[in-house]
Amino acid sequence: MTARFTGRTVLVTGGGTGIGRAIALAFAREGARVVVAGRRPEPLQETVSLVEAEGGEATAVTADVSRSEDVEALVGQTVARYGGLDVAVNNVGTFIPPTKLADIPEDHWDTLMATNLTGLWLSMKHEIGHMRANGGGAIVNISSNLGAHKRLPGLSAYAASKAAASALTRGAALDHIGDGVRINAVSPGPVETPMSSRPGESAEDKAERMGREVPAGRAGTPEEIAAAVLYLASDEAGYAVGTELVLDGGITA
């Protein structure tokens, strides 16, 4: 245990489950005050309860990152409660059923892009707006190894949204490092969360599939992704600007 983030305020979107929850818990264990945000209040409150059970401090805010007014209010509530915003982790992401490109319903495309790309842009827009006026900060975006690094049949829309997220991260990093805002990304491969499971797949079947598909022989854990996020957000990563850490067990090596 260290106290790398004692006295700092960290905002984690998508903080109610999976990777986002693991990130929120990891920051709290290192001394941060954590705000978790997402569309559903119940899982957010569960995350807050887990943080508090370990002696940490956390707050839940319901917000839809595809809506600018929601994100502006989220940042405002974070600052009002804790006096500032030092670190933001944009764990935004949704998925649509695997579909060949020409057969994707337009509303599925719009929903995917509204969250995975527009939601990321709006999050950074409002987070950076506060940070550059208040001494800077660090932002870590959660992208994917699908996109800039790998493609799969039936997942072209998702890959496009995440490739754009990777490009947006790098562009924002160059735009705002001069403002004291350091921006990087972590791009996971398959992780032990429901999002990486196929419909109807048992835990045993998934483990067997991961053994075939991942050179490391397994899916990653949310805690492994969280550790990379904390590194990029920490002072130790002060020279990392526009970096994208791909954690996928060797899939794209």
Q: Low-confidence stretches at least 5 residues in length (pLDDT < 50)?
A: none
- Backbone CA Rg: 17 Å
Order of SSEs:
EHEHEHEHEHEHHE
CATH architectural designation: 3-Layer(aba) Sandwich
Number of helices: 7
Number of domains: 1
Give me the oligomer status: single chain
CATH domain class name:
Alpha Beta
Give me some keywords for this one.
alpha/beta; 253 residues; Rossmann fold; 15% strand; 7 helices; globular
Walk me through what this model shows.
- It is a single chain.
- The protein is α/β, with parallel strands linked by helices and 253 residues long.
- The chain has one domain: 3-Layer(aba) Sandwich (Rossmann fold), CATH 3.40.50.720.
- It contains seven helices and seven strands; from the N terminus they run βαβαβαβαβαβααβ.
- The chain has a seven-stranded parallel β-sheet, with helices on both faces.
- Helix 1 packs parallel to helix 2, helix 1 crosses helix 7 and helix 3 packs parallel to helix 4.
- The longest helix is centred in the middle third of the chain and has 26 residues.
- The radius of gyration is 17 Å and the shape is globular.
- The relative contact order is 0.14.
- The model has no long low-confidence stretch (mean pLDDT 95).
